[in-house]
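example protein:
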Amino acid sequence: MLSHYLVELAGVMAVFSFAIVAPGADTAMVMRQSLVHGRRAGILTAFGVGTSLLFHLSYTILGLGLVVSQSLLLFSAIKWAGAAYLAYMGVMALRAPAPELPAVGADAPPTARMSAARAFGLGFITNALNPKPILFFLSLFSALVSHETPALVKGAYGLVMASCLIAWFTAVSCFLTMPRVRDAFARAGRWINRVTGLVFIAFSVRLALSRAE
């Protein structure tokens, strides 16, 4: 029986690994946090995204995800809330002045340091207000996970998935805050907010145009 669960997990992770590295709003948020507020904020944001993933998985396993996917009203409410949030973040980024990036070998200076709760919350909300994970996990678990697999085992799958997602975004944050990489972005500091702002707005439009299928 254990070998059966390991095969299931391997199949799930084979598909999920592509979703992890695919660029999206979560990636843009972690990158911005890392570049503007330092490695600490980037990693905390990564943990927020990973925790939100567990949030999505929890109600998917409980069956609530199916309810949301079948309810146009609920899906639309989440979709428009997420689109509005991303658009807001995009506008704020466009209006923000050029960030003063941390000095080499340092994290964000005291004036730019973001609180742990806010950094974590930004990652959590960015992922939580995206209804697409609902459909993704429903289709993923329906196709690759047996209905007879216990909820506890499915929860263990979720923990592995969330851990891998956090590890990936932590690696992204650490890479972006390496001295050489950070210096390269520092030379284009005034473009960081403009580019990330446009990216957030683009993902907002993409989410607003999405449909439950």
User: Anything to note?
Assistant: The radius of gyration is 18 Å. The chain is about 80% helix and 0% strand. The chain has a mean pLDDT of 81.
